[in-house]
Amino acid sequence: MKRIFLDATRCIGCRSCVAACRECDTHKGESMIYIDYIERRNTVATSPTLCMHCEEPLAPCAQVCPAQAILVSADGIVHQADETRCIGCQNCVYACPFGVPKFQVAQRYMRKCNMCYDRTSQDKAPMCATVCPTQALFYGTYEEFVAAGRTQQGAKPVNQFAFGKQRVQTRNYVILTEQTETLDLLAMATEAQLGRLAPAPMADQEVEPWVDAEMAGIPSRAAPPQPWAPRQPATPEPAIPSPLRG
Fold it and tell me: Residue 132: enclosing H or E segment and its boundaries?
């Protein structure tokens, strides 16, 4: 079985996968892959996000759909919602542990990555993996991934994730640099602390004193009598003639 191996350490944020995803015939000009920015204020690291095509339990998004709008083909591909059946309840959006399905408000139906089924069903690589210049998205069997030498470079493929007590096994793999059998995402989220990387100043730390707006020279405007009252345009100040002009 061919899968996608997602290696965030190789992603350079070029967004080639996003542009190529729009060219997939079944996506109708819209990208079904997203680039997430990780700790944007501290690093330029990025990571592509695409459907992991859950195998165990099988497609939680499809299981919670009351209209049976999400099809899971015999080869395990989880397809996007059928717009003729989708009722817009967004159960699939809330059930996906990876936050992949996106609800299209204008069209009123869910869209998600279907691994370029028009290509993969004919043994062709998905558009995103085809154009990735750094092979952050590698498409192939596990044996092909090992034969490419990626495991010799320290890559550890993982396709089992823990969300508290709930375990999820996926078709696609995420590449780590440390040996682990299961990636506990809930434990990682609990470990993260607000302000851990940017501690707040202590009470005895020297800080600049508070300056009023009038002292700082910030112009003030009179508030309208009612919030919905139209504001009057400011009267332009008369131009001061330049002494250099005759």
Answer: none
Q: Which two tokens stand for residue 163?
A: 């969300």
**Parent domain of 154:** 3-191
So what's the pLDDT on residue 181? 60
Q: In CATH, what number is assigned to the domain containing residue 111?
A: 3.30.70.20
For residue 50, tell me if it sits in a domain: yes
Question: Does residue 240 lie in a domain region?
Answer: no
- Read off the tokens for 41: 């204020």
User: Is 21 within 8 Å of 27 (Cβ atoms)?
Assistant: yes
The answer to whether position 24 is within a domain reads yes
* Three-class SS state of 225: coil
Tens of pLDDT, residue by residue over 15-73, are: 999 999 988 777 778 888 888 887 777 778 888 889 999 998 888 888 888 888 888 88
**Enclosing H/E stretch for 54:** strand 54-56
Residue 242 lies in a domain: no
DSSP string, 169-221: EEEEEEEESS--S-EEHHHHHHH--TTSSSPPPPTTS--PPP--HHHHT----
The number of folded domains in the chain is 1
N- to C-terminal Cα distance for the chain?
Answer: 84
At 103-117, the pLDDT tens digits run 878 777 788 888 988
